[in-house]
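Trying the structure run again after the queue cleared.
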Amino acid sequence: MSDQNYLKFLGTAGGRWVVSRQQRATGGLFLQYEGTRIHIDPGPGALVRCTQADPPIDASNTEAIILTHAHIDHSNDVNIIIDAMTAGGFNRGGTLFAPKDCLDGPSPVVFSYLRKFLDEIIHLEASHSYKFGNVPFKTSIPHNHGIDTFGVKFDFGGKELALLIDTRYFEELGEAYVGADTLVIYVTFFDTPPHPKILHLSLHDAKAIIERAKPKRVILTHFGTTMLENDPERIASEMTQASGIETIAAVDGLQLAL
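Done. Tokens:
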């Protein structure tokens, strides 16, 4: 396992009860690849989770932030991470990638005074290609999540790691993630969500996506109460046996070698 190239899970919580009670952490994901350091979706407590990581992550060395959407569990700590990575504006630098909703919508999540501390702010759009440092990535088709929301597909030397972020299930999802070597799926509900206005995936949805996308490996994360009650590790083990595709239930602090 390379200590230099990894994706670390600084949180695996999904759903308001798990988030508000901090039954699982909500720090987002931290990516380091060939010297490039990117924080993805720094939610509540992200800065604290960086300092508590093993080994600790120095947020002042972060070079870029990717926000997949503006919901609070994905963006709450974006401002403190920007402040840390720019030394409160004394060391201007870094890039923010985010949908327009995060900056120009009715409830922008990035403080105006912090924006000038950054070198660049890039608006994410659906099905576009981007690159930061040594990390090329592209966005997915639009997700069904009430606001601009995109999955992210990273290319690590020809191996694709895709983050299938929050969304309600729709038929095109599986096709949109064909080609992923590792597919990280945000699975909040064990059963079908109890109300049609809840725009998150269930375990049944995840299985349908996997059957169509056929990744080489699956990581489940973003667990709500019903997923935790049904033991994500047991679920992942049963899915591995049933599908033949290695399936892992993420835990806080999981470090995935790239």
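The longest helix spans residues 232-243. Worth checking whether this holds up in the mutant runs.
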